[in-house]
Amino acid sequence: MKDFFKRKDILAKINQGDQDSFLALYNFYAPKLFRHIYYRVNSKETAEDLAQQVFFKTWQYLSQAENQIDNINAFLYRTATNLITDYYRSSARKDLALENVEEKKFASQPSYIDEIDNNLTVKKIKQALVKLPAEKQQLIIWRYLDNLSIAEISQLSGKSKNAVYVGLHRALRELKKIIKNHEN
Question: DSSP for 113-144?
Fold first, then answer.
């Protein structure tokens, strides 16, 4: 479905302010952006507000005739990232705390033992993830929680695809090391 919004005809309708196309865009991206923001701000209400602001700002941007969006996915995630940054700048908040995020369910109905194993694994990963520098955390979140491609992360971060790939590799290596040291 993400590729649907890359089609030139759909992107043209969005850029022209077609409400039905924008609504389809909202319905597809709202849950993904909410999850992305929620993992960063750790507050359901704040994440909902910021996700709504992403679409409001996008609509405002498109309402100016000279503005066009070439890659809607990168535009939305860049806007979300900027809003998250503004949120932390404007409020005296603690550092990003992923350890309090509710556990993600990996299967529709896992067995009780599988669910315990998954919860323990997720907890270990989240505890290790917060020990990484913010830039490395962001790469891992974009790639594995938001399922963004290397090209999309490159556009969001302003780095080359190669730099993103190397940064992601290093972040995963450091994350594995932190988890291994924590287990010992």
Answer: HHHHHHHHHHHHHHHHHTTS-HHHHHHHIIII
